[in-house]
Prior knowledge:
- Helices cover 50% and strands 12% of the residues.
- The chain is of the alpha/beta class.
- It has a single domain, classed as TIM Barrel (Alpha-Beta Barrel).
- α12 (249-256) links the parallel β6 (238-242) and β7.
- α4 (50-63) packs parallel to α7 (117-129), α8 (143-152) packs across α10 (170-194) and α11 packs parallel to α12.
- The structure holds coproporphyrinogen III (CP3).
- Coproporphyrinogen III is lined by residues 23-28, 37, 43, 70, 72-76, 88, 93-94, 139, 155, 202, 204, 321.
Amino acid sequence: MTHKPLLATVLxxxxxxxxxxxxxxxxxxxxxxxxxxxxxxxFLELCYTPDLATEVTLQPLRRFDLDAAILFSDILVVPDALxxxxxxxxxEGPVLDPxxxxxxxxLKPERALDHLAPVLETVRRLRAALTPEKTLIGFCGSPWTVxxxxxxxxxxxxxxxxxxxxxxxxxxxxxxxxxxxxTSIDYLVAQLEAGADVVQLFESWALNLDDQAFEARVxxxxxxxxxxxxARVPNAPIIGFPxxxxxxxxxxxxxxxxxxxxxxxxxxLDFAARHLPADLPVQGNLDPLRLVAGGAQLDERIxxxxxxxxxxxxxxxxxxxxxxxxxxxxxxxxxxxxxxx
Length: 341
Ligand code: CP3
């Protein structure tokens, strides 16, 4: 077994106190992140500059007793690497030139991994910098989630553009998913070879899908990635985070073969306890806004989550990314309560 508590938990070992990391733990709630951010020309440049990306990844671990570092990058470096235009505009989020049924053939999967070389260099530097008890988490976006941005050109609350595209242009949509599956497998294998201990599949838009669409667009592509990665890195540890999967959660975990399941904050604790296999490691599921507000409601909810998952392998985390308004003292209090009661 491993001496890394977080990796061990992904592999199914229950710990006395759960290990903890925080989605988007490197980010704008930290003044030292905002400082580094001004040094890069834009957000993608920050992701592609190993000096800066390594520094930003390590910042939250200097402040808090976290059990893992997550590679600083973004799920949208993959469309960028495929040759699509991707920009991050201040206060607006990502903006892409949308792909069409005709333009999917112009994507360049053959050059994607070369384009991502600086990110892999960051992984190697992190591996060298981290002490042995820390787990290094790599990641990519799951194909459907990445496709919603590639097709819609920006984030949306209902992913209508991508949902319609998948129904109107099934062949072009399948070709896009095939490209994303193959590129994601290569990219995750390269991250594991560069020193990542675990990889996480971010399926942030696993909601708004009927069960047939969930099967075809979420379960199948995630299963193909898990199988494809493990064909090249046997037993690769993988966390799946299908945000919004609700009643499809148990099916997602069983059918994709992920080691551990990320739970969003809308997943009821008693539903997780009753419907997920008792030995399935879970990660989550604190509402990030509870961490903003702080106080007694926060402590009570932390304790409720700890109690609900006490009998199984559990990684404490938020149910979605930490938001920029979060007070740093609240994060310190959270880590302390999870670690020491
Ligand atoms: O967790 C970490 O600390 C590692 C870095 C990380 C980022 N994005 C950095 C980032 C990770 C794992 C992601 C994943 C990501 N990116 C997801 C999946 C997780 C989720 O939140 O659902 C998605 C959907 C994206 C796409 C994306 N990137 C959006 C929609 C935005 C804009 C919204 C926002 O929070 O600003 C980003 C930008 C982004 N990615 C920032 C950071 C720190 C903020 C950009 C900045 O500093 O200006």
